Each structure stands twice: as structure tokens, then as C-alpha cells.
Automatic annotation (TrEMBL):
Cofactor(s) required, per the database record: FAD
Lineage: Bacteria, Pseudomonadati, Pseudomonadota, Alphaproteobacteria, Rhodospirillales
Keywords per UniProt: FAD, Flavoprotein, Oxidoreductase
Organism this protein belongs to: Kiloniella laminariae
Entry annotated with the keyword Glycosyltransferase: no
Catalytic EC class: oxidoreductase
PROSITE patterns, per database record: PROKAR_LIPOPROTEIN
Protein name, per record: D-amino-acid oxidase
Length: 351
């Protein structure tokens, strides 16, 4: 089958990988110049945290996340780091830690001593925490590149620097299916899609070493710090109901940096490398959707779970195309909408 994929963010590349592995003839068309900062996927933290995310997400997201981890461990060997996640809170916010634990699973409580064994840099800083040993993380920018390398080896065709305009999108594709993975840019066709602004900071510190993502529960910004190579840390991320994709506010950056300072005062001496902003594509229920309109299939709405869940959502898209809606797993059908009055949630009345 000939499959045309629009967009080269994590969703487009994951779909391409799944279809290429099934032996289809895949072409990716993207206005990006390659894996670059023009897509939301560039700015992500790269946490694969299906159990922590259950604190605020539907159980289905956790299931899709666990399924996707198998894909990532295969595709990103050398980049995929499975050392778990540590969740801590300042002494005054310990009730928040208990609440976090009640809403999630697959964790063990860790004492101050165990925290210092896991993360010597945090020795003496927190009385207790929650450790999620099965979670993983990676550097999303390296992953986008690794996926592209894999796809080129599979003879996937790339048409970068090509923006499909309205007229192109309305012209039926010559491929058997067009999979539209344009993220927030597909708002015109998917009017329920909204942006949730996320700001992040990249810093570098030679003083502090962390082995895994740390989440600091904080009343206003639940902060996370994800370690990358060469003393670089990603500090994220704000969640603001706003579609603005380029302007970071002083308040947000102050809050992110002061929360990092609360995690470890040594971050006060770190160098700021980058401040990044983008808007996560999200539907009203914050769940992904696969929306079929004839030979076009929109895969969108990954919200804060693009890396966490895109591979499983891509596999579901392949099931829909290859086997048809009736064969799709019953508990996944709610993610799929067909045409106007869909069988799934009617997220996209105008398609
Ligand atoms: C600060 C921040 C931190 C995050 N952290 C995490 C995290 O730790 N874990 C996680 O799982 N998720 C995280 N996310 C969410 C994740 O980044 C998104 O869910 C994901 O990037 C959405 O991917 P996408 O492929 O749908 O969209 P995008 O990455 O935006 O890709 C869209 C693609 O479509 C192309 N395109 C657009 N219009 C056209 C056109 N007209 N013609 C051709 N091509 C077009 C673009 O060039 C781009 O290549 C984070 C997000 C933010 C902002």
C-alpha cells in the first residue's frame, strides 16, 4: 500500500515507522527542514512516564504508554534510559506526595536514605519520595533523528521543506491513504483541537548529576527536571490554556527556574542554554484521536503524551487501515472517529 504521511513530529515519524515495518511504501511530507525546532516534538521533556501520568490522565493513556515503551526500547537503543522516575516534595507539601501516590501505581515509597542512594546530589534534601522504577526517558531530539535514520534505512521517502496548503489538502492523494499528522496546524480541519502552551528551559551545570527524571511537587508548577548528556538538564514545563507558540513569559521562566533552585540550590549557578515554547495539540478530553474522513486519517491530539503514546496510537491507526474498524480492540474504539457522526467520541463534527 502507498501511505502518505503529512508531518514529521513524533506522531508522523511513529506512524511512518509502523507502516514501514509492515512493508508499505511510505512518503513523509513536512514543512520542517528535518528534525527541527519548528515542531512541538522538539521541545518535549522526553519522559516516558505512564504511571506518573496517571495522576492526571485517563487510565487508557497509561496503557498506551506501557505499550509504546516496547517500541521505544527497540527503536532508540543507546538513547533509551530506563532508570525510573523519582517524585519528591518539600516537607510542607508532603500531603501532595501522598495524594500523588494514591492516584498512581507501580511505585515504592523511598526514605531520605534511599533517595540519597538513588540520587546522591539530592542527599539530605527530601524526607521521603515515590520511586517509579519502570519508567524511562530519552532526549527527544536524538530520538527524532534516530527515527529518521531508521526510516531512511527502510527506504521511506522524505519531502522536507514542503508545506501542504489548503488546496493540496483538498486534492485527493494519489496514495492509498493520507495520514495527517500536522499537530496544531490541522486546527482548521479539526476545530475542536486547541493548543496548551508549554514553556521549558535548558540549562547546563557541571556541579549537579542526576540519574533520572525528578518530579518536584509544587503548588503552582509541578516541575520536572530531566537529565541529558553533558550536564544538560531540561526543566519543564508550564501548562497554560493558550495557543501562543513563541513567547515565554518572565513569570513562567521565573517559576520554572525557582522551582529548579528549590530542588537543588546548585542550579543557581547553572548556565541557561535555551528557553523554548510550543503549544501541545489537544482535544477537549485531552485524549488522542484517530479520525477517518475517506482516505484521509487524522492522527492528532497527543496533548502532553506525544512521546509517551504515539507508537501505540500509530499501531492502532495501522490496525484501522489494515483490518477495519470492527476488528479494532473494543477498549480502543473510543479513540477512533469515522466521518461526521462518528462511532467514537464526536470530537470532530466538521470532518
Ligand atoms: C514543553 C513541552 C514538554 C513536553 N514534554 C513531553 C514529554 O516529556 N513526554 C511526552 O510524551 N510528551 C511531551 N510533550 C508533548 C509532545 O511534545 C506533543 O504531544 C507532541 O510533540 C505532538 O506531536 P505531533 O507530531 O502531533 O506535532 P508536531 O511535533 O508539532 O509535528 C507536526 C508536524 O507537522 C508539520 N506540518 C505542520 N503543518 C504542515 C503543512 N501544512 N504541511 C506539511 N507539514 C506540516 C510540522 O512541520 C511538523 O513536522 C511536551 C510538549 C511541550 C510543549
Amino acid at each position: 500500500m502507498r501511505i502518505e504521511i503529512i508531518g514529521s513530529g513524533v506522531v508522523g515519524l511513529s506512524c511512518a515507522a509502523v507502516f514501514a515495518e509492515l512493508g508499505h511504501d511510505v512518503t513523509i511530507i513536512s514543512q520542517s527542514k528535518g528534525p527541527d525546532d519548528s515542531c512541538c516534538s522538539w521541545w518535549a521533556g522526553g519522559m516516558l512516564a505512564p504511571w506518573c501520568e496517571m495522576e492526571s490522565a485517563e487510565p487508557l493513556i497509561g496503557e498506551l504508554g506501557v505499550e509504546s515503551m516496547e517500541f521505544w526500547s527497540r527503536f532508540s537503543s543507546g538513547h533509551y534510559i530506563q532508570r525510573g522516575t523519582l517524585v519528591v516534595a518539600p516537607a510542607r507539601d508532603l500531603p501532595d506526595l501522598k495524594r500523588f501516590g494514591r492516584r498512581t501505581e507501580n511505585w515504592k515509597k523511598v526514605s531520605a536514605e534511599e533517595i540519597s542512594e538513588l540520587e546522591p546530589a539530592l542527599a539530605g534534601r527530601f524526607q521521603s519520595g515515590l520511586f517509579y522504577p519502570s519508567e524511562a526517558h530519552f532526549d527527544p531530539r536524538k530520538i527524532l533523528q534516530a527515527l529518521e535514520d531508521f526510516l531512511r534505512n527502510k527506504a521511506v521517502h522524505f519531502q522536507y521543506n514542503r508545506s501542504l496548503e489548503d488546496a493540496d489538502l483538498q486534492t485527493p492523494t494519489e496514495a492509498d491513504f493520507r495520514i495527517d499528522c500536522r499537530g496544531l496546524a490541522a486546527q482548521k480541519e479539526l476545530p475542536d483541537l486547541r493548543g496548551v502552551k508549554g514553556e521549558m528551559v535548558l540549562i547546563q551545570s557541571d556541579e549537579i548529576q542526576l540519574n533520572r527524571p525528578i518530579r518536584l511537587l509544587h503548588p503552582r508548577i509541578p516541575l520536572y527536571v530531566v537529565p541529558r548528556d553533558n550536564g544538560v538538564f531540561m526543566i519543564g514545563a508550564t501548562m497554560i490554556e493558550n495557543e501562543e507558540r513563541s513567547r515565554a513569559s518572565v513569570r513562567s521562566i521565573l517559576e520554572l527556574l525557582s522551582a529548579a533552585y528549590a530542588l537543588h540550590p546548585g542550579f543557581g549557578e547553572a548556565e541557561i542554554l535555551e528557553i523554548g515554547v510550543d503549544a501541545r495539540p489537544a482535544f477537549p478530553d485531552n485524549l488522542p484521536a484517530i479520525i477517518q474522513a475517506g482516505s484521509t486519517i487524522y492522527v492528532n491530539g497527543m496533548y502532553r503524551h506525544g512521546y509517551l503514546a504515539a507508537p501505540a496510537v500509530a499501531a492502532l491507526t495501522a490496525d484501522l487501515i489494515m483490518q477495519g474498524y470492527p476488528s479494532v480492540r473494543e477498549d480502543r474504539k473510543s479513540l477512533i472517529s469515522i466521518g461526521h457522526n462518528s462511532r467514537g467520541p464526536q470530537r470532530c463534527a466538521s470532518v
